[in-house]
TrEMBL record:
Transmembrane helix in keyword set: yes
Keyword terms: Cell membrane, Cell shape, Membrane, Transmembrane, Transmembrane helix
Gene that this polypeptide is encoded by: mreD
Organism: Proteinivorax tanatarense
NCBIfam families according to UniProt: shape_MreD
Record-given protein name: Rod shape-determining protein MreD
GO cellular component: plasma membrane
Membrane topology, from the record: Multi-pass membrane protein
Length: 165
């Protein structure tokens, strides 16, 4: 059930992020809903299916938000891979540790995005400017989204047969 549901959830989250959330942007930055979902999923069910969902979410965001295919894919995939490998060090039932892991994941995601944007000569903004103008508003919004949707998402993900259709 969770595999198909996760694919649909990611599709809905990216659609909401690209269409409705810009109305609530801070400096043009909106919460990365799929990153919030993928971080919680990586902490609870970190496996190869989570990495496939990261590729799916990154692909959708590349198509909807960017002119390049692969930047969001690389950022989401790398971020989920790191979170999955370090998930044993986080206490998964503690909201504070989940929020801390979201801070870590948001930083990694923004760093990878900035690396590829500079490498491909898409932007020439410094990493300090990215931290102050993009990372902080994104982090605040991601934390608010995680706090608001932690309980329903955790209930959805906590099913032991989550990935079975």
């Amino acid at each position: 059930m969770g595999g198909l549901i996760s694919i649909i959830i990611i599709l809905l989250l990216v659609t909401i992020q690209g269409s409705f959330l810009p109305l609530f942007s801070i400096n043009g930055i909106v919460a990365d809903l799929s990153l919030v979902f993928l971080v919680l999923l990586s902490l609870q069910k970190g496996n190869v299916y989570t990495l496939l969902l990261a590729i799916w979410a990154g692909f959708l965001q590349d198509v909807v938000l960017l002119d390049f295919i692969g930047i969001h894919i690389a950022a989401k995939l790398f971020t989920c891979y790191i979170i999955i490998n370090f998930k044993d060090y986080f206490y998964k039932e503690n909201l504070l540790m989940i929020l801390l892991s979201l801070v870590f994941a948001t930083f990694i995601h923004q760093w990878v995005m900035q690396f590829f944007m500079v490498f491909l000569d898409v932007v020439s903004i410094s990493f300090y400017d990215v931290l102050t103008n993009q990372f902080v508003p994104l982090l605040i919004q991601n934390l608010i989204v995680m706090i608001l949707f932690y309980v329903p998402l955790k209930k959805l993900i906590s099913d032991k047969n989550f990935y079975q259709l």
